[in-house]
Amino acid sequence: MKRSLTVLAILGALAAAAGCSSASGSAGSADSAVDRQAADGDVLRFAAVPAEQSIDPTAEYKDIIALIEKNTGRKVQFVRSTDYNAVIEGMVSGKIDLAEFGPLSYVLAKSNGAKITPVASMVEKGGKPTYQSYGIVPANSKITDINGYKGAKVCFVDPGSTSGYLFPSQGLLAAGIDPKTGVSPVMAGGHDNSVLSVASGKCEAGFAENAMVDHILIDKGKLKPGDVKVVWKSAPIPMSPIAIRDELPADLKTKLTDTFTKDANRDRMVQLGVCKDTASCRVTADSTMWGWQPVTDATFDPVREVCAATHNEQCSKA
Fold first, then answer.
1. Which residue stretches of 93-233 are H helix?
2. Cys staple from 90: which of 2, 96, 206, 227, with CB 3.0 to 4.6 Å?
């Protein structure tokens, strides 16, 4: 895969993100000072690509950041990225310590040399450890299945998105449609943007994760039930993981692993005093998620299998 951001660009993004770090004091530090602290192990750089481009990540991730700081004794600098490649590059270069990946972006980071270990994947309370990609069209569209995507203007999320590009590519190929030349592809940048572009008619069809279509945008009043139609569903996809950098001190890696596998759920975070109640508590940007469950690298083999089946260059080692 061709990396779209250099290490220099990552450092620039980290410097720009210094103002949206932990509320406990690291936010105002100059980047050089943060670099020195990070080198000493005092600062943990936590990166994520929110599924919605319109959200305020400092608010959505404040509870999980507070939990990490409580359990590790380290300050957390949150690094928001709008590009999956930025998180991948940051992990490969060692400039990010832990990250919330999409399943594909985790696989890409590993294949590009990132020395990381997945420790947990997000999950709804009592829910399955998987989700799906939806193929959607406007409510008044004549398209009834994925075969109708041929020649259409189609919204994807990002080339590094699992449910917004990789699994949709597999679906299109199975229908005899090349995802690059058989449609007019548009990269919307976020799952919310993809859905809303389809609903407004900016794209004739599109793809996004199921939760964004089923309830997230509806709950926020940005989409009405029936504004889009689901005409295709993918096979189950492993849920998004948290991965940590292997070079971190062993005791810190243990604390981070225990944080996500034992304490990073709404009920426990209320018990620990991180959140005042389960309704307002957040373990990630997706408000429907209850917590995190343990995973291994093998959990993401289904993603690798789709990579092999689609011959997607995004899956190739750089």
1. 103-111, 167-174, 191-200, 210-211, 217-219
2. 96
Which of 36-40, 221-225, 232-236 shows the lowest mean pLDDT across its residues? Answer: 36-40
| Amino acid type, 39 | A
Measured between alpha carbons, how far is 124 from 14 in angstroms, rounded to an integer? Answer: 31
At 34-68, the pLDDT tens digits run 343 444 458 999 998 766 555 666 788 999 999 99
Q: Note whether 67 and 274 are within 8 A (CB).
A: yes
Whether 263 and 67 have beta carbons less than 8 Å apart is answered as yes
User: Which residues on adjacent β-strands are paired with residue 265?
Assistant: 291
Structure tokens at 108: 């890409």
Q: Tell me the average pLDDT across 142-160.
A: 96
Provide the terminal-to-terminal Cα distance of the chain, rounded to the nearest Å: 5
Within 8 A by CB and 6+ apart from 259, the residues are 67, 68, 71, 72
| C-alpha dihedral sign at 43, 29, 101, 12 | negative
Helix (H) or strand (E) holding 46: strand 43-48
Cα separation, 42 vs 37, whole angstroms: 5
The SS3 of residue 155 is strand
The amino acid present at 41, given as its one-letter code, is G
Each residue's pLDDT tens digit, 78-100: 987 767 788 889 999 999 999 99
Phi, then psi, of 11 in degrees rounded to 5? -60, -40
pLDDT attached to residue 60: 86
Dig out the tokens for 20 from the structure.
């949206």
